[in-house]
Amino acid sequence: MKEQLSPTLKTQQKILELAMEDEEKKHKTIQRDEVKRFTFADFAQGVIGAGVFGLPAFINTSFWDYLPLVSTGQMLVLHLFFLFCVVTALNFKYRSTFSFNPKFLAALAKRFSYIYLSVFVTVILLLIILNKMTADISTLLLIRYFLAGQSVGIVGATTFSFFTKE
């Protein structure tokens, strides 16, 4: 009787090992296809990226000289184009194709929102420090400065996030 149980136990053990290997492979695939959770380190990278890549554009006066030549509508369209590029770049950072998986899209939207808000805080601080945001400017000019700064900052923050190891 002991001899009959032994092959059965061995077979069951092999089945269990194969199931565990399949589960590990499935978990690794799921991990690769999920968006990494947004952490304080990601916030700091966004701030650094917005500062490092955006600060030269803020300091260079010719950058601000071009703003009156561009209409607010054109700036908004350009900003939306940059946002589309950032979302697409973030998608391809985590997947090799674009997916309409609702869980993935929700996680991607959440990550994008956090990056956008991180850059928002940085841009507002830079605009205040560089005296571009003062109490005596018009709301339209404030929106134009914000769109210009946010566009530069979001591209910088996203670019900087690609330099990190996952």
Task: Characterize this entry briefly.
The chain has 166 residues and is mainly α. The protein has helices spanning 2-33, 40-59, 61-66, 72-94, 102-129, 139-161.
Provide the fold topology.
Layout: H1 2-33, H2 40-59, H3 61-66, H4 72-94, H5 102-129, H6 139-161
Helix pairs in contact: 2-5, 2-6, 4-6, 5-6
Structure description:
It is built from six helices and no strands. Helix content is 80%, strand content 0%. The mean pLDDT is 78. The protein has 166 residues and is mostly helical. The radius of gyration is 24 Å and the shape is elongated. The longest helix is centred in the first third of the chain and has 32 residues, at 2-33.
Biggest sheet descriptor: none
The low-confidence parts are none
Order of helices and strands: HHHHHH
Oligomer: single chain
Question: Mind telling me the C-alpha Rg?
Answer: 24 Å
Report the portion of residues in β strands: under 5%
Instruction: Kindly name the structural category.
Output: mainly alpha
State the total count of DSSP E strands.
Answer: 0
DSSP helix fraction: over 70%
How would you state the average pLDDT, rounded?
78
Key descriptive features of the protein:
single chain, 166 residues, mainly alpha, 0% strand
